[in-house]
Amino acid sequence: MSPHKLVDEDKLVRAAKRGDLAAFNQLVLMYQGQAYNVAYRLLGDPDAAADATQDAFIKAFRRLHQHRGGSFRAWLLRIVTNTCYDVLRKRARYPTQSLEPQSDDEDQDRLPRWQSDVESPEEAVLRQEIHWAVQDGLAHLSPEHRAVVVLSDIEGLSYEEIAEVLHIPVGTVKSRLSRARARLRDYLRAHYGELLPRAYRLPK
Amino acid sequence: MRFRQRHLSDEQLSLLLDGRLSAKERRRVEAHLRSCPTCRQAYQGLRQTVMLLRAMPRVAAPRAFTLSEADVGRRPRGGHSIAWTRWATALVGLMLVMALGLDVMTRVLMVGTPPVGKDVLHVQAESTAQVVVTLESAEMPAAKSVVSKAAQKTQVPTIAARAVAPSAVTPDSQLDASSSPLPAPLVQQTVPTPMPTVPVTPSETDALARPWPPRGILRLIEIGLAFLFVLLVILHRFRG
Ligand SMILES: [Zn+2]
């Protein structure tokens, strides 16, 4: 993150704290992509993810006075993950909805977005299968493990920032992340044993 | 195994993967990996898993999650910044219309002849005429006299002074036959008072040599206001 961006962001955060909704909405536009992606990976469902993202931004605006310096992104993503935890708890209580990734038309719609021009249709299908496999693997982790793996390996946050988001010590981030990765590795081996060797041969 | 040491933990492997081991610890872990196929396999699996995660596509947000006043439980039209620029734009626009009106009136009534401007001013009048038409304000008809006074007092012209000075200094009394066709139609659109085209004779021009307010200042005011107006419109677009 460039210093220039940080200065800009600080200014927006200060304005938003004074009640300037337009300034807050600029922050929304800066972070909505990441917020939505985190929610989507944690919940595995586009509609629930959109609802959670919207809820999180509304909560964030109302709780701006609780933000005491530090990374705004970490603070925001904390609200997003907590909102998702709430959704997951409700699901656990009323287990009508499943955590399984939805292999429905929404996923199909997304196919062309990341399919590169040079890729053969077979490769594209394989890539899609792998994404489902990983999302399925994520869904079978505990929410705590899933969160740490999503923030680290999908969103690319540092240990320190994850510690801020999840409100846990950096040491806990290290151990929890390693356990989550190992669980995911073992799950994928057990359930997608014949898919993975082909996956690793895919061009980057 | 040569050193009879325990296998590496997932945490050690994970930290190695992220480059978060100390130099010393790293050498030890790497040495163990070279000699232990079991740990090597565990490490490969971890590395590949992380690679799969990193290759996950970003999903596009299905919509913008920006909040409205209603979303945060406020009455609409609370945001000061937007309201502020809107009022300022309307006010400046109105002042501009008044200034242009005053300009035309002094030309018609006092000089008794349609103005002859330089090209710069034609363009300027034209562009302001267009912006004025797009401005949906007209919300403050009561403020006329106040606004026109304000237009005379405003300090804005100093901003534009540098750019405009040469043309503004040009005396209007230098009327010659070649430049007399008037740039009227556009001006007539913006100003409520229709402009009678009065035939001019040089003697009339001499008799009413000193219009008030001085033409140069009025022009500075007009250009300054136009400049400010465009600035506000841009600002408003940018924020809204
Ligand atoms: Zn070993």
Could you describe the 3D structure shown?
The complex is a heterodimer of chains A (204) and B (240). With 204 residues, chain A is mostly helical. Chain A contains ten helices and no strands. Chain B folds into two domains: 10-54, no CATH class; 81-239, no CATH class. In chain B, helix 1 packs across helix 3, helix 5 (119-134) runs parallel beside helix 8 (184-190) and helix 7 crosses helix 10 (215-239). Residues 114-193 of chain B have low confidence and may be disordered. Bound molecules: zinc ion (ZN).
Based on the coordinates given, report the CATH architecture of the largest domain in chain A.
Orthogonal Bundle
The pair of chains with the biggest contact is:
A-B, 49 and 41 residues
What is the CA-based Rg of chain B, rounded?
Answer: 36 Å
Regarding quaternary structure, how should these chains be classified? heterodimer
How many individual β-strands of chain B?
0
Quick recap of the structure?
The complex is a heterodimer of chains A (204) and B (240). Chain A starts with a helix and ends with a helix. Chain A is globular.
